[in-house]
Amino acid sequence: MHEHVTAIIVTYHPDLDALDQLITSICDQVSNIVIVDNSPDIANLRTRYALAQLVYVAMQGNAGIAAAQNAGIQEARQQDASHVLLFDQDSIATSGMVRQLLTITQQIPDIASAGPCYLDTRQDNPPPFIRIEGLRLIRCACSIDTTVRVDYLIASGCMIPMSVLDIVGDMRDDLFIDYVDIEWGLRARHHGLQSYGVCNAKMQHQLGDTPLRFLGKNIPLHSPLRHYYHFRNAVLLYKESWVPWNWKYVDGMRLCLKYIFYSLFAKPRHVHWHMMTLGIWHGIRGKSGQLHHIAS
Q: Can you say how many angstroms the Cα of residue 181 is from the centroid of all Cα atoms in its chain?
């Protein structure tokens, strides 16, 4: 099989030192790299990186992560890529990660995507892979040289065969950001395909902002604006008839707990509460795309 892995890195006002580390970690593991920049001006990136295998796509402003990923996928198609490998700007691949993911995508016939076990050094433990069975959320612990079935993978580090994208379709860009990877993973399952977490493929990744310390644990925390998109897009997804009802129920219960927790403990509390509530209201109304102003 022709192997041509195109890495797609979506950036938005990136920390250039962190981006250096990501590019260095993957440049010898992939065929080429596409940087899709959502910042207003990409000039600083063009002058910083001059690798022959690197292509730039400028979105001319923040078009959202899904639209940027789709632009990168389009570029990968033009380069005859066999697989795309999605990255956020704050990840670092370990040596051999790409080969391990590629091997799994070639071994499993019904595979939708493969992703690494990632470690956020700010968290207490590596985040587990997740799937929902019945009315239970299963946290899949990793062991060496195993793959685990999951409902979805986080976008960063996710490898998708181009043939799968031909079946499932690209990312849903009207979600803008948040639940984009979840929606795509569930859509792939609706098409009879399965995503897998690959335990011996490792990646460093920072999830969200500085974690919130609560009862001795570090809890992932996002900005109020990200909470808007998170809650709005969750509601939009619950309204889709093809999403399994038990998945809606279990994820909805988790969403309720997040709403209560962040309303009480994320500062400034009233701003987080307002943005989450607005997100729920806009989801009920069917509003999607980028939030341009709050008074609506």
A: 5
